[in-house]
Specification:
Distance between the termini: 24 Å
Oligomer: single chain
Strand content: under 5%
Shape: globular
Number of helices: 8
Number of strands: 2
């Protein structure tokens, strides 16, 4: 197998792993409002932890580039929300209005952050095969709870579980799409990587706090519980990330 083929196959399998995160929801028939709030907390905690990991990884390359990317990321989300507000009757995967706009923004932000991770896969394979396999394997496990986070946001809004599974994979496909050009042009993309990581970290954090946490607060009615669920989810996901890193 040529190095290029290896990057293609490995990055594609990494992207598809997000579907496993949706599996638990195939066995759940109905969710109460309070449970939906907890689901949003889990999704938010996962996103915040992933954002911190992306930012820390980017800082190893360039602090200024990460800050620049973060400013771009927050600006992107704010602008996207402003644009989507103009389309009150917008439809998305069976959703309408506010739910459709919120779901679309969430999908876009998750996909953008996957682009940055795809850069990481390609650049790492450009450096050394062992490093590339480690990064890809870590991201494959990392994608499973993120796939669950996608489902926990979409299913409560009315998206079917099979559709949520499909969207979870769509959100991570940019990893495969960006891995190949990043591998072929490793020097160019290695410079863009910290900006992309900062962009993704900022955009994900903004959506997690302003959308998911706020929705959870409206459902749970107890800010201390919201904080506890978000914190627990963040710590659990961070522990998984640290475990994978130390294992390497």
């Amino acid at each position: 197998m040529t190095p290029l083929n290896q990057v293609v196959y490995v990055s594609l399998l990494t992207s598809l792993s997000s579907a496993f995160g949706v599996v638990p929801l195939f066995f759940v028939s109905e969710l109460s409002s309070s449970v939906l709030g907890i689901c949003n907390c889990i999704a938010a905690g996962t996103m915040l932890s992933a954002s911190a990991g992306l930012a820390l990884e980017g800082v190893e390359y360039s602090v200024l580039s990460v800050v620049f990317g973060a400013v771009l990321g927050a600006s992107f989300v704010i602008l996207s929300k402003h644009v989507l507000k103009k389309y009150e009757n917008i439809k998305f995967s069976g959703l309408q209005g506010l739910d459709a706009r919120s779901a679309m923004l969430f999908i876009v932000v998750m996909a953008v952050h996957a682009f940055a991770e795809g850069l990481g896969i390609g650049v790492s394979f450009g450096g050394h095969e062992k490093l590339g396999m480690y990064i890809s394997t870590s991201l494959a496990f990392h994608n499973i709870p993120e796939g669950l986070a996608v489902a926990l946001v979409l299913v409560p809004k009315g998206v079917s579980v099979p559709s949520a599974c499909l969207w979870a994979v769509v959100c991570t496909l940019p990893q495969a799409l960006m891995a190949v050009p990043a591998f072929l042009l490793v020097q160019t993309f290695s410079r863009l990587l910290p900006i992309g990581l900062g962009f993704a970290a900022s955009a994900m954090s903004y959506v997690a706090v302003t959308d998911l946490v706020e929705d959870a607060r409206s459902r749970i009615k107890d800010d201390s519980q919201v904080f506890m669920y978000v914190s627990a989810s963040s710590v659990l996901f961070a522990s998984i990330q640290m475990g994978l890193k130390s294992y390497s």
